[in-house]
Amino acid sequence: MSADRFLLxxxxxxxxxxxxxxxxxxxxxxxxxxxxxxTPNVDHVVLASRDPELARAYGAVDLSxxxxxxxxxxxxxxxxxxxxxVSGSDLVLPLAERAAQRGWRTYLLGGAPGVAxxxxxxxxARFPGLVLAGTDAPRVTLEADAEGDHALARLAAARxxxxxxxxxxxxxxxxxxxxxxxxxxAVAVGVGAALDxxxxxxxxxxxxxxxxxxxxxxxxGREPRRLWRRYLVQDPxxxxxxxxxxxxxxxxxxxxxxx
Length: 259
Known about the structure:
By secondary structure, the protein is of the alpha/beta class. It contains 14 helices and eight strands. It is 52% helix and 14% strand.
């Protein structure tokens, strides 16, 4: 494992700033070999501890960026501090700007009907040089289905270099991992609800709320019926995962010092 990467409950997280993350993504695009970029948060860590396929997807990720202050705080407790939070929502606008500057063919996938199209219009209005290879909002499942196959075929035919995938976790990470070969040279970035924010369909938490680590509470207050189980039932298991990590690190034998 790279020296600038650490494991949190089996999920790798790269210790990079937002600027460094953009440069790393640009290097992946320039290499032309494809790639996967994920943004793990507390929910991802808990899900990966229970879902072997999500854990495998994270095991093969090219770049993994901390989405949420709780992950940053956990890194400090573990003695491997992250320089800052770099969520998918923080990344979309600067990434679109970089794509416009470099002429990358960009594809938006996911969201409710109309979201990707509206997000594309707004991004092109803000960054006129942005080259849109296409948008799509298929009903993607993780089971074998014709609609998902057709969506993948449309994406491949568009020949994008950068794909923003907004299918939600763990679907988007597993989908990217399963279809890396079909995605070909494109770099796929899981961005969760970011296209909803860009399209103006969902209001994002104020900056001070995000920096205080309370974005989950903001989202719960706005979408309680959809999110209550995730935040109130599932995610508290993160505390146990973090405690085990702390315990295991304390028990690990100290590395011998060189004479």
